[in-house]
Write a structure and sequence with these properties.
Number of helices: 19
Structural class: alpha+beta
Number of strands: 21
Distance between the termini: 21 Å
Largest sheet: 9 strands, antiparallel
Radius of gyration: 29 Å
Helix content: 25-40%
Length: 613
């Protein structure tokens, strides 16, 4: 793989680098001519709207601002149009946009940039912004070798999973996270290396080669990268601004203009509805019923049916303009301001905690991630001008859907934010005496790293499994940083995350035998939740009868495909002599699963229809 040498620090693609790249040129707003006026007049006549209603406002704005200054026209529109006249506002906005089009027939896509925070506390935010239609820019420090240990971890939360990581582990983590939200599409990632002013050009090229080599064994991740999308930038010595980023801009322009993955065919009439929604953004949230009323107030030729409104909302959600899910319980509400919604969550997780306060509820939240409804009300009321409290029910419903939090019990107003939990899990916390099952293991790709927010999501999904409830022991809610305990038919189900393995064990307080049918039901329930995440490959197996839960040192994994066994020696148990594996440790024997007609792969399963691992 060749990384060509470029001028300055850049390693850019080979496209035309002249400064007049059409997408990057500013709009050429020429002086109005008689011909232009005629063209605009003809377009007004084509619009299905009474010309008399808009002519005065349009004329006034044109006379006041012949240079067509966008902001000034907007001010004129706002001053002249009543809040109820959404149609007129949208039409004028479209005419304004049309006037600012250059004379050349050039498509100029609108590009939105979002800065996604990297500390572990904010991992759960990423799905709010991620979608298959997004291009990602991954920024890395080239003065750090991919094999270097990350010595200083700046996370607000003491995340045990990332402490021993090297830089390459984080690179794999981020690409795996990006891949998991890309559906069936190949995500596009631009790799930007910083601190090029501190190393040589040859060192820059060597760094990029080393990064690419990390993914030699992960083709599903390596295909996200390309040598033509690698750039090295330096920081200024004296100037206050970064050096020219033209090459990166041109790469983005080329991606947007040349890829069909960023294109959606929509009806022109949608533009009117989108402008109306943008105008309503100040309300933060709007109901579907209100959108229907707005639609009914439009001129008859501009009205659309309910099904098309639904399509518009789903499209705008997909491109990141708003939040909307066509699902029961959510499809009656539209979140118009995504940043406002994210800020509602940030105010909760960043709430200041006074260690001397006699009210320990916030201290408990900082330690365990458990917060009661009253505290949420207090937090949002303290920032009343943000308006979060007024929409509490709708915000919490969307947060649950996005797996930012979950209500722990149906009859109690307690919420759980797993990314906040710092409590360590010890087996002795709960289990005193009784019977234990063998340990079910979902062994994910150890080199690809299982994103921690996937485990968070699985825990939140398990809370919603019928007849499952979070265990409460001595008034202590049994949720931990890397584990969760549930009660199911008088049995305790423990779900743990150890590096790249999700482990499940069943405990029963008395010396009773744990039924095979119950184990089968639990395994199918947990795997069903794992299968809701796409793009992850794992092996199913069990630790032997002497296996230890919640430890990385026990390697006694026996793949499910090897059962039933007759004389299988286990030599991996920590502290145990060599012994035969017992068939009873397998919760579902492969032949029984086939009889039930379930889809089974002999050794490895994937949560996607096709996977390159």
């Amino acid at each position: 793989m060749t990384f060509p040498e470029r001028d300055k620090y850049y390693i850019s693609d080979s496209e035309d680098t002249s400064e007049d790249t059409k997408l990057l040129c500013p709009f050429q707003c020429k002086t109005e001519t008689v011909k232009e006026d005629r063209e605009h007049e003809e377009n007004r006549k084509r619009l299905p709207y009474s010309q008399n209603k808009i002519s005065n406002s349009e004329k006034n704005c044109s006379q006041l601002y012949p240079e067509k200054n966008h902001r000034k026209i907007n001010a004129c529109i706002k001053a002249d149009i009543s809040p109820q006249d959404d149609e007129r506002y949208a039409i004028l906005k479209i005419i304004d946009d049309y006037k600012n089009l250059p004379s050349e027939n050039i498509i100029r896509p609108l590009i939105t940039f979002l800065d996604i925070p990297s500390p572990s506390l904010y991992y759960t935010f990423h799905q709010t912004y991620s979608s298959p239609n997004i291009c990602y820019i991954m920024v890395v420090d080239m003065t750090k070798s991919p094999n270097d240990q990350v010595l200083e971890h700046v996370d607000e939360i003491d995340c045990y999973r990332t402490k021993p990581w090297k830089y390459q582990d984080f690179y794999k983590f981020w690409l795996q996270s990006i891949h998991s939200y890309s559906g069936d599409k190949i995500p596009t990632v631009i790799l930007v290396g910083t601190h090029a002013d501190e190393i040589s050009k040859a060192s820059c090229r060597k760094f990029f080669r080393e990064v690419f080599e990390i993914f030699d064994h992960y083709p599903h991740l390596k295909r996200c990268l390309h040598p033509d999308r690698t750039f090295a930038i330096g920081f200024p010595k004296t100037e206050s601004e970064l050096e020219n980023l033209t090459d990166i801009k041109k790469c983005i322009a080329k991606l947007v203009r040349g890829s069909t993955s960023f294109e959606d065919r929509i009806r022109p009439i949608w533009a009117i509805f989108e402008h109306i929604l943008q105008r309503k953004k100040i309300k933060r949230i709007i109901s579907r019923k209100m959108l229907t009323k707005i639609n009914n107030r439009l001129n008859e030729e501009l009205r659309i049916d309910e099904a098309e409104i639904q399509k518009i909302l789903c499209f705008l959600h997909r491109v990141g303009t708003l939040l909307y899910f066509d699902e029961e319980g959510l499809n009656e509400t539209v979140v118009l301001d995504i940043q406002w919604f994210v800020d509602a969550f940030k105010t909760i997780i960043n709430v200041p905690v006074d260690k001397n306060d006699l009210d320990y509820s916030l201290q408990r939240f900082e330690r365990t991630g458990v917060l009661d409804d009253e505290e949420i009300i207090k937090i949002w009321k303290s920032r009343a001008k943000e308006g979060h409290f007024s929409h509490k029910k709708e915000i919490l419903a969307y947060m649950e859907r996005l797996e930012l939090l979950a209500k722990i019990y149906e009859n109690e107003a307690l919420y759980y934010i797993p990314s906040m939990n710092k409590r360590k899990f010890e087996n002795s916390d709960i289990y005193k005496e009784g019977s234990k099952s063998s340990i079910l293991c979902f062994w994910f790709d150890e080199k690809g790293q299982l994103p921690v927010f996937i485990f968070y999501g699985i825990v939140l999904k398990c809370m919603k499994i019928p007849k499952w409830s979070v265990l409460r022991e001595n008034d202590k809610i049994c949720l931990y940083e890397n584990s969760a305990c549930f009660l199911f038919h008088c049995h305790i189900v423990v779900v743990c995350l150890c590096k790249y393995k999700i482990q499940v064990q069943v405990w029963v307080p008395a010396r009773n035998r744990i039924g095979v049918n119950l184990l089968r039901e639990i395994q199918q329930a947990v795997e069903g939740k794992i299968q809701e995440y796409k793009g992850y490959t794992y092996k199913i197996g069990y630790r032997c009868q002497n296996g230890i839960l919640n430890t990385d040192d026990d390697n006694s994994f026996i793949a499910k495909a090897e059962f039933p066994v007759t004389t299988h020696n286990c030599q991996n148990c920590k502290g145990s002599k060599t012994h035969f594996v017992d068939n009873t440790i397998c919760w579902i024997l492969p032949e029984k699963e086939k009889v039930q007609g379930l889809s089974v792969l002999p050794f490895t399963r994937s949560t996607s229809k096709c996977c390159d691992l």
